[in-house]
Every structure is written in C-alpha cells, then in structure tokens.
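User: what does the whole thing look like in 3D?
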Amino acid sequence: GAVVSQHPSRVICKSGTSVKIECRSLDFQATTMFWYRQFPKQSLMLMATSNEGSKATYEQGVEKDKFLINHASLTLSTLTVTSAHPEDSSFYICSASLGQEGNYGYTFGSGTRLTVV
Amino acid sequence: DAKTTQPTSMDCAEGRAANLPCNHSTISGNEYVYWYRQIHSQGPQYIIHGLKNNETNEMASLIITEDRKSSTLILPHATLRDTAVYYCIAKKGGTSYGKLTFGQGTILTVHP
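Assistant: Here's the predicted 3D structure for the full assembly of 229 residues, as structure tokens:
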C-alpha cells in the first residue's frame, strides 16, 4: 500500500531556531501534499496544500513566511518552521494525495511532535 | 463541503459492535462520505468511504441512509486497538483531489 514517511517523529528546539520536517512518499508519486497542525485535544487543521514544482497554497491565518513549504519532487515535501516560538509547539502531520479514487486516496504520515523551549 | 456532526464520545465493550453515527443533512449529490480514524499521537488512517450504497471492507461497514442525510460506521467486533478518534467527512468527488477538512470527530473508547 501507499506509505508516507515523516521525519523526525519528535523534535525539541530552542526558541528562535528553525526546524525542518520531511515528508516522503515511499512507493508512489505524490502530486499534492497537505500539511496539518494539531494542538492537544483538538482536531487537525489544514495549514497548506503543496503541489510539486509550484508554490504552496496557505489556509487563511497561516503565515507563509513562518511556515515554509517546499515540494521540489514528487516524493518529497518539507515544512520548515522558521524562528520557532513556544506557541508553535504542536503535532504536525503531512498527507499525500495519490490523485486517484480508491482506498488510498489520502495517506498520512505518522506526525512530528514539535516542542519549542 | 457539507458540515458533519458527530457525538463527542462513545463507549463500546470489547468484542461488541461499535456503531458510530454521523449527521450530514446538507450533503450534496456529488459529495462522498469518508471515515478516517486517528489513534493517539499518530496520523489519521483511512477506513472507508461511500456515496449512496452501503459499503463494507475488511475494517468496517458504512451504512448510508436513503436520503443520505446521515450515516453509521460499524466496527463489527471492536477491540481495544480500535480506541481512537473517528472522523466523518463529506467531500466532493470520489477522488483524492482537493482538501480533506476534519471536524471534531467522535472519541471511541473500547473497554474490556
């Protein structure tokens, strides 16, 4: 089946530093990838949609200069949290679209727990 | 995409069927009903989806009412590992194009 690998699973960083999260599709080409953020006891909130080779589309209220998304290839998308602050601490999840109907329409990474201290 | 409404939480005994309801009274004709679940601190997992007909796969069954205003996800023999948040989502088209928007979901707790 379609697998999305997300790294790191956990990261702790100091306030003011940047953190990069990688999302790789292992056995398929992902034309579109989605990035979500999830705060404790809340649902997933879509942050942005990235299409290979083009600029990401950000949801309202998400700062594009703070959350840099790069989707340079059909198998890799990265989210960089720049100048991280404690309020950026959250669970970040990527999702890849297979662009086809069926059981594996959307497949999700295992998530990255970011803690900013 | 149509708004969905789910109970905040439900309990189920291990080995019994878990029936999770979802209301989507404003669903349009080209919107599918998708179910995903999220086990604690993991990414969501696809369960099943359907348009009009009832669907069954190795994980669950999906029962959609004739007027399509509500549906029920059935886990036939719940296990402790089925404890998770279950999300019912209405989305246009049967493909994976477009955004998947999550609501609050139902916290299902399966107890021994």
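In plain terms: The interface with chain A takes residues 38, 41-46, 49, 57, 87, 94-97, 99-105 of chain B (CB under 8 Å). Chain B has a mean pLDDT of 93.
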